[in-house]
Specification:
Helix content: under 10%
Structural class: mainly beta
Shape: globular
Length: about 120
């Protein structure tokens, strides 16, 4: 797994009439680049985009209503939105723009995590 860059919105509350200020805080996560790949099970990703050099999906279903997904029992997406699911997914050199990632188990060998502008 290559680096994952995540923008996290940090909010400051209004205090004594001051305006609400917002800024993005960078999060950079790298793992699996020393020979042992990162892995996850029961992975759910809410993303606006993903790229990779090679992707393999087993028993994939694309374009289903996200509210009807069944691959991860008890978990569905928003009704009426685009969904896809598969038994297994392998993506090499993954880069993704996400606002939500959850997993039953997320194995991240050689994990490095950084915060801030330069991460």
């Amino acid at each position: 797994m290559q680096a994952i860059d995540v923008g996290v919105l940090q909010e400051q509350h209004v205090h004594r009439g001051r305006d609400l200020r917002r800024r993005r805080l960078g999060l950079r996560l790298t793992a699996g680049d020393a020979g042992t790949p990162a892995s996850a099970d029961n992975l759910i990703v809410d993303a606006s985009g993903q790229t990779g050099s090679q992707a393999t999906f087993t028993n994939i279903s694309i374009g289903d209503d996200a509210g009807t997904l069944t691959e991860d029992p008890g978990t569905t997406g928003a009704a009426g939105s685009f969904g896809e699911q598969a038994d297994t997914v392998t993506i090499d050199n993954l880069n993704q723009d996400t606002w939500l990632t959850t997993a039953g188990t997320f194995t991240l060998p050689d994990l490095r995590l950084g915060f801030g502008g330069g991460c």
